[in-house]
Amino acid sequence: MGLNDVLYRRQYKIQTEPSVPPLDLKQLKTLGLWINPIKGHYVVTLTSDKDPNNDIATFTTNFKKITQLTSTDFKIEPQFGPFTLQNAVDSPWF
User: Fold this and answer.
1) Which among 11, 33, 75, 85 is placed 20 to 30 Å from 64, CA to CA?
2) Edge-to-edge strand order for the sheet containing 33-38?
3) Mean pLDDT of the 19-26 span
4) What's CA 48's distance to the chain center, in Å?
């Protein structure tokens, strides 16, 4: 495994609608490492570059299955970046 494989992983920035209750991050831990920097905003970083959730369609399907949310309940933005919270919050949220 190279340094880039360790430092650069797929991340998803997720913003839920105000009417959606906070996500149960323990329930979502199978999808990756989660943080919730501000209310209704989440960042998940995959734990492996070989994770099938690298594909946004696969991740979205699994996320919907676990949370029981619909596409209108959240927005999602995929990105690659260093494995840091700073990278996740540097760009604007939608």
Assistant:
1) 85
2) 33-38, 41-45, 8-16, 74-82
3) 95
4) 13
